[in-house]
């Protein structure tokens, strides 16, 4: 995580929506960042599929496309 955050002077994530699919929760999130060297601001919507077992996270995957995130988690609507 330190390696991921190193190029950013600021980076934050805002959860916008949660959808439950059994053991998996699909989170629609907005990721914001400001480049440390460039000062360029970014803003992106991503979808994170969090899979839980016995109250623990056993898998998480981020995707830029909602349908792809669902399919990667073995889900569909």
What is the fold's blueprint, element by element?
Layout: H1 2-5, E1 8-21, E2 24-35, E3 41-53, E4 56-63, H2 66-72
Describe it for me?
With 77 residues, this protein is mainly β. It has one domain: Nuclear Transport Factor 2, Chain: A (Roll). The protein has two helices and four strands, in the order αββββα. 8% of the residues are buried.
Percent strand equals over 45%
What strand line-up does the widest sheet have?
Answer: 1-2-3-4
Shape: elongated
Radius of gyration: 14 Å
Average predicted confidence as pLDDT: 94
Q: Note the main sheet.
A: 4 strands, antiparallel
Features:
4 strands; single chain; 2 helices; four-stranded antiparallel beta sheet; 77 residues; Nuclear Transport Factor 2, Chain: A; mainly beta
Summarize the structure.
By secondary structure, the chain is mostly beta strands.
